[in-house]
Amino acid sequence: AGPLDEDESLKRISHVFIDEAHERSLDSDFLLSILLAKIRDLPNLRIVVMSATIQADQFSGYLGDAPVLEIPGRTFPVDTYFLEDLSGKVSGDSLRGAWFECQEPGNSRSSSGEFSDANLPYSVLVETILYLHAGDGSRGW
């Protein structure tokens, strides 16, 4: 028996929502495994797993053939831009300047020398968003 077994407050919880379940992590997997272990002791508990892109049948099976509710909706086209490719297509002094800053050693390169968006200068992000939102309407929104 652990703290979760002794905590009476869990009996007052009726629903637990797990959104974006397709973006699995150690934390979400751990939460789900604990909830599944406790659900037999908590008959009023409902687990709601949500995702727009999840493999519903597979998750349903994992959850003991839980019912699946599908809500129809529209999907919107998504254009994919790779930052490295965009640098050669941009025009405008401010974005070129931001890209120049990005190419400087240590600004956007990982320790292995490869491009890393984790160290991307803020100015590159700002100028890229402005570039994608501007123009002839064929870029961005």
From TrEMBL:
SUPFAM superfamilies linked to this entry: P-loop containing nucleoside triphosphate hydrolases
This protein's name: Helicase ATP-binding domain-containing protein
Any GO molecular function: ATP binding
UniProtKB keywords: ATP-binding, Helicase, Hydrolase, Nucleotide-binding
Keyword ATP-binding: yes
Record family assignment: Belongs to the DEAD box helicase family. DEAH subfamily.
Helicase ATP-binding domain segment(s): 1-72
